[in-house]
Amino acid sequence: MEPSTTTAGALAEARPAAPAARREAALPWYVLAMTVGATSIAVGVIWDISWHRTIGRDTFWTPAHMAIYLGGIIGGLCGAYLALKTTFGNDPAERAVAVRFWGFRAPLGAWLAIWGAIAMLTSAPFDDWWHNAYGLDVEILSPPHAVLALGLIAICLGALLLALAQQNRRGATPGRSFGLTYAYLAGVLLTLVALMATEYRLTNQQHSAEFYLVASGLFPLFLIGPARAARLPWPATTIAAAYMALNLAMIWILPLFPAEPKLAPIYNPVTSMVVDVWPLLLVAPGLAADLLMRRWGEGRDWRLAVALAAAFLLVLGLVQWHFSSFLLSSGGDNWFFANDRRWDYNARPGAWQSRFWGDPLNLKAALGAFALAVVSTRLGLWWGGWMSRVKR
Question: Out of 62, 225, 316, 338, which could bridge 380 as a Cys pair, Cβ 3.0 to 4.6 Å?
């Protein structure tokens, strides 16, 4: 039986609409490219820190540096492409959601990526000069590293905002690919922030007052803020899981590469790449945050901030206190937990490696950590509320 003319016409009109709908639901190529670039940056930074702690002095052209620069170049080129395309293109819809700067138009995330790439590339020769003049850095955040860190964070934040704008333009149900890409980029950003705080989150410090003060003031902002803007069922848990997955992959991959120190004094003759400490178990407070945000919703942010801060500090304290004790025991000395693979070549072996350091946590420090967590969480809720409206 032949279909009627009306039915055949309807089918013919419907066929080209399906590929168009698929294209509409797909992530733009530049968001995918900047996701790759942000990953390259995070991998490169972790690798570079390991290089310094394993081999010692490096050069401008190490593979770790190349991974960092590759990520910065991808971010800068994507941002420049979007600026030129939006400014000189003929799409009024793109121009309507662009930010104007110096006569050019581009999405907000593109401008951040451009600025970050400029800052990153400017810091590279400065860092090379710094090492030639002063030798190895005593601290992670030396002046050139501080400029580099701000540039790298700007690139990753630009990628995050580009993915966020794509998610927000598609309403309440944008599709899982948009939400998951955004959550993954938030996990990359969280990784970079955690790396900046490396000197305060060592396993041996996780019973100290300083650790809880730093963790409470820093991590709620970068966990709760992006989670509020994400359109996923369990956003904070997903972001924390992305952060943990990226860091654990590096912990398990880096020791596969043989390496040896090339800078004296050598107290610990390592034979493979040194790894970072196990990532913080932020999945636990992330799950608690998701449950609370589901129950409270929006509109009572100060009350919610207090509840989230209390949950963050309590849950993180419970899991991290006991987990760090386990890591410092013999149970942490294996390929999976890699506690015995995290010591630098210049770390003199001794009983101090299995002890906790720093001033112990007390009531005064706990109250201070709670106050910092409230402020950090409240700022995160404000930031997340703003991000949930970003479409530029």
Answer: 225
- Rounded CA separation 130/148 (Å): 13
Spatial distance between the Cα atoms of 223 and 22, rounded to a whole number of angstroms: 31
Q: For residue 273, how far is the Cα from the chain centroid?
A: 22
First-residue to last-residue Cα distance in the chain: 52
Residue 137's φ and ψ, nearest 5 degrees, are: -70, 135
pLDDT at 134: 62
- Tell the residue number behind the tokens 């770390």, with chain if given: 347
Q: E strands, the chain, where?
A: 99-101, 104-106
Among 100-109, 219-228, 318-327, where is mean pLDDT lowest? 100-109
Please report the sign of the dihedral spanned by the C-alpha atoms of residue 166, residue 170, residue 176, residue 180: positive
How many other C-beta atoms can be found within 10 angstroms of the C-beta atom of residue 28? 14
Provide the greatest CA pair distance for the chain.
88
Kindly list the domain boundaries of the chain, sorted by start residue. Answer: 26-196, 200-392
pLDDT in tens, 182-212: 999 999 999 999 998 988 999 999 999 999 9
- Computed on alpha carbons and rounded to an integer, the radius of gyration of the chain in Å comes to 23
pLDDT tens for 29-60 read: 999 999 999 999 999 999 999 998 999 877 77
Residues 6 or more apart whose Cβ sits within 8 Å of residue 195: 45, 46, 49, 140, 276
Query: What mean pLDDT, rounded, does the chain reach?
Result: 86
Report DSSP state, residue 258: B
- pLDDT score at 318: 96
Q: Give one word for 175, left, alpha or beta, with left for phi > 0 and alpha for psi -120 to 50.
A: left
Residue 137 burial (C-beta neighbours within 10 Å; 0-12, 13-18, 19+): middle
Nearest to 117 by CA among 84, 55, 169, 71: 71
Q: At what angle do helices 108-134 and 63-88 cross, to 10 degrees?
A: 150
Decide if pLDDT at 335 tops 90.
yes
Task: Kindly report whether the peptide bond that precedes residue 220 is cis, defined as omega within 30 degrees of 0.
Answer: no
SS3 100: strand
